[in-house]
């Protein structure tokens, strides 16, 4: 299991931080790490191929930092998406805010990199007078960027050229109903509710042939991971872990009930019930 670092708890953010530490910039990293730790990175923005940050240094005005990483081409992304669509678990994990563990193998199979392979893949600049590259302000922004990837794994994809909406649309296969320009959507006929009050709660014969298969959630505690840290104050650190264990117990009890009863409502996974 990956060791949690100061600026990263997830494996993909740890990978980003450790790449920085392997690029041979150790002489500048200690001061950059201290800047990041003390909150000197005032603002950071991730765009396709570019990270912009403001880092407070010794002068009154913060320095402007830029970190560039070449976006992948459309052809490269098409190859990646074709491989990702082969397994629905990738979309499930990404929707829950979790980067699949073997995602790098997918990019490797597509012969394109997800992470920078060396320091030469990064184009870095800072408005400070320091001649070194990277300077401590760039290093500070790089560390804080790891925390941002922790918070939202889709930012890593955005840096490579695709935002969250584009990634999820591609994983769904881009299947959308095609209509001619200006055409109206088909009208759905319906009957007055008053004519069906007596049989309103009947399931109907249409459900007789529906097969239901209830399984455990593919991503444990997906709801909690999707929501992120709860905005509640004065809670002990173990409270969130207790809540996660409650969800696990509920999922197991739901599956046990289904196995005993032999039937269940239309449920996709135990955690969603």
Structural summary, described in words:
The structure is a single chain. By secondary structure, this protein is an alpha+beta fold. It is built from 10 helices and 4 strands, in the order ααβββαααβααααα. The chain has helices spanning 11-22, 26-37, 74-84, 88-95, 103-109, 136-151, 154-159, 164-171, 222-227, 238-261; strands at 41-47, 50-55, 63-69, 122-126. A hairpin with a 2-residue loop joins strand 1 and strand 2 (50-55). Helix 1 runs antiparallel to helix 6 and helix 2 crosses helix 6 (136-151). The model is unreliable at 263-273 (pLDDT under 50).
How many domains, as an integer? 2
Structural class: alpha+beta
Oligomer: single chain
Mean pLDDT comes to 78
Write out the strand line-up for the largest beta sheet, numbering strands in chain order: 1-2-3-4
Largest sheet: 4 strands, antiparallel
Q: How far from one another are the termini?
A: 31 Å
* Overall morphology: elongated
Secondary-structure element pattern, one letter each: HHEEEHHHEHHHHH
* Uncertain stretches: 263-273
Summed up, the helix count is: 10
Please give the radius of gyration in angstroms.
Answer: 24 Å
The fraction of residues in strands falls at 5-15%
* Count of DSSP strands: 4
Q: What percent of the residues sit in helical stretches (DSSP H or I)?
A: 40-55%
């Amino acid at each position: 299991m990956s060791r949690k670092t100061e600026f990263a708890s997830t494996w993909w953010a740890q990978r980003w931080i450790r790449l920085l530490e392997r690029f041979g910039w150790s002489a500048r990293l200690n001061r950059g790490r201290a800047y990041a730790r003390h909150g000197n990175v005032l603002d950071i923005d991730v765009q396709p191929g570019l990270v912009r940050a403001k880092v407070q240094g010794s002068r009154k005005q913060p320095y402007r930092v830029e970190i560039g990483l070449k976006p992948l081409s459309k052809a490269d992304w098409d190859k990646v998406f074709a491989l990702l669509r082969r397994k629905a678990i990738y979309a499930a994990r990404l929707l829950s805010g979790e980067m699949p563990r073997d995602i790098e193998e997918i990019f490797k199979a597509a012969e394109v990199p997800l992470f920078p392979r060396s320091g030469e893949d990064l184009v870095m600049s800072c408005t400070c007078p320091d001649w070194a590259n990277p300077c401590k302000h760039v290093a500070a922004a790089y560390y804080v960027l790891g925390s941002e990837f922790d918070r939202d794994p889709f930012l890593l994809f955005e840096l490579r050229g695709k935002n969250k909406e584009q990634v999820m649309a591609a994983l769904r296969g881009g299947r959308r109903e095609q209509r001619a320009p200006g055409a109206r959507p088909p009208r759905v006929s319906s009957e007055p509710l008053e004519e069906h009050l007596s049989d309103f709660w009947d399931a109907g014969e249409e459900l007789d042939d529906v097969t239901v298969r209830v399984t455990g959630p593919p991503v444990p505690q997906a709801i909690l991971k999707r929501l992120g840290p709860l905005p509640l104050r004065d809670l002990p650190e173990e409270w969130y872990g207790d809540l996660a264990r409650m969800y696990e117990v509920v999922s197991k009890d739901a599956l046990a009930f289904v196995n005993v009863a032999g039937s269940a409502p239309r449920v996709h996974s135990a955690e969603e019930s």
